[in-house]
Design a protein that fits this description.
The structure is a single chain. By secondary structure, the protein is α/β, with parallel strands linked by helices. 39% of the residues lie in helices and 16% in strands. It has 10 helices and 8 strands. An 8-stranded parallel barrel has the order 1-2-3-4-5-6-7-8, surrounded by 5 helices. Helix 1 links the parallel strand 1 and strand 2. Bound molecules: 1,3-dihydroxyacetonephosphate. The site of 1,3-dihydroxyacetonephosphate (13P) has 14 residues, from strand 8. 1,3-dihydroxyacetonephosphate (13P) binds next to strand 8.
Amino acid sequence: MRYLIAANWKMNKTVAESIDYIEIFKDLVKEVEGVEIMIAPSFTALSSVSILLEKTNISLGAQNMFYVERGAYTGEISPIMLTELNVKYVILGHSERRHIFGEKDELINKKVLTAVEFGLRPILCVGETLEERELGKTMNVVERQIRAGIAGLEREISLIDIAYEPVWAIGTGVNATVEQAQEVHHFIRNLINDISKGNDKDTRILYGGSVNEKNASELIKAPDVEGFLVGTASLDPQKFYKIILSSLEV
Ligand SMILES: O=C(CO)COP(=O)(O)O
């Protein structure tokens, strides 16, 4: 299994800034092999970035998607708008979508099913809040989000990746420890192995939440951490490159 190191730029970078970044970054990583690299820019930059990523070793991702092909859904982006731009991955159920925009498991599931139907590879994000962790509910929350998110795709789970992103670690500078990450990743691996009846070997379990160029080499050593979904540190091409290099050391 090739690990996936993914950048989620969130609502950052104009088109001009995105182009500047890619020009630098694609040169930095051009010799990198053995790991898959993905960048999910803003929707407005997708088209320009898509052109720049042609014939590179960097895949393109989107940060969200609606579950209908076309129609009266003001402000939404459809799967065919993404596939037209050679988008390969789509991040779904991110905690910011869940907590700021009120996305529920049922909606996220519809998006996951549609993404797969259109040949996109979803990265389903799950993770507990600090309160849920302190109440000892981490595994319950993660299990609920996964079971609901993949409903209908149980035997085809190899078509998706999962990102464990504890809400308390996102954008806070407080990453999960290696032990905390490993504990939940191991739980997720057993869960999806069980749900899919062993068809989970191509599903990567990524960690996200304050990953940076200093902690990446430790976190990637956890046996069930199979890549990263990086926010803040991915905004700097040099830092993101260092995270990728750390991931090659395992
Ligand atoms: O939400 C994240 C990636 O999707 C993580 O964000 P940070 O790396 O800024 O904590």
